[in-house]
Amino acid sequence: MKFKSVITGASVVAISALALAGCGSSSSSSSSSSSSKKSSSSSSAKTTKVAKLTAGSKMKAGTYKLAEQNYSHGYKAEFSITVNSKGKITKSDYNQVNKKGKSKVDDTAYNKQMKKVSGTNPKTYQPKLNKALEGAAATGNVSTIDVVSGATESSKTFQNYAQQLVQAAQKGDTATIKINNGAKMKDGTYKLAEKNYSHGYRDTFSITVKNNKITKSAFDQVNKKGKSKVDDAAYNKQMKKISKTNPKTYQPALNKSLVKSSDPTKVDVVTGATESSNTFVLYAEQLQNAAQNGDTKTISIDNMVFAE
């Protein structure tokens, strides 16, 4: 979610604004979640009011596709979304198929065994994830998609790919996104940056890769002057009081966790900054995909920001 800047000139923003927030993310998905929740609370009091998109492009009508290039344990992911003229996802088709084109959903033995061990299976979690993207996340708000218990890794992969498809839909780019999954990351520095500010901040992120390891992670939230949210003393003090954490604490923790594991799905969520942590993982996965392709072009995120 988004926090408002804690201080404006010499006046401190009311602490109640912070109390509504669970973290300090300035991502597109987080801003959508924050705005949606606040608009829904106001709509109950003022009939029905839909949150207005104030920054970021709507998705363009069309069908957008993504495909993994390599098989893992005999399967690879294929994913497509269909967007209508109103900029909403009307169909989500995420699937995992083998070399014969058979879905993992139809692998009876696999589903039985996974259900026994994890409490869920592809037959359960794939439709659930697709339904979530067609429902609360239909406007592109990927942060509303919950991780399915027992299928954490698959859920995070779904979120990552859904986010990339939403970005393609914003541009109207129908070229199939090719994911070189399982490939080694190529040496280099890979960058990502949000275009739009929410409550005065936007996310920037870069990773440095050497010998298939992430040796440096630099996730930050900066204002129009390039100043980091970490350096906003008043903001950090107020957030610490409410959430028991703040950018000064959670940003270094997230960066350190990614360097330690070199695997975004193993990054620990920082208590009190859940949404910022989830956004970090989404963007880290996208940077990992870029590194697998050796694509050092800065990824520009046209993050959606909604009026409150």
From TrEMBL:
Residues 1-21 form the signal peptide. It comes from the Bacteria. InterPro entries: FMN-bd, PplA-like. Residues 74-169, 200-291 form the FMN-binding domain. The keyword Signal applies. Keywords: Signal. The keyword Secreted does not apply. Residues 22-51 are annotated as: Disordered. Gene3D superfamilies: 3.90.1010.20. Residues 22-44 have a biased composition (Low complexity). This is Extracellular electron transfer flavoprotein PplA.
